[in-house]
Amino acid sequence: MEKITSFTIDHLRLLPGVYVSRKDHAGDAVVTTFDIRMTRPNFEPVMNTAEVHTMEHLGATFLRNDPEFKDRVLYFGPMGCRTGFYLLLAGDYESRDIAPLMTRMFTFMRDFEGDVPGAAPKDCGNYLDMNLPMTKLLADKYLKEVLEGISEERLIYPAD
Question: What is the pTM of this model?
Answer without folding.
Answer: 0.94
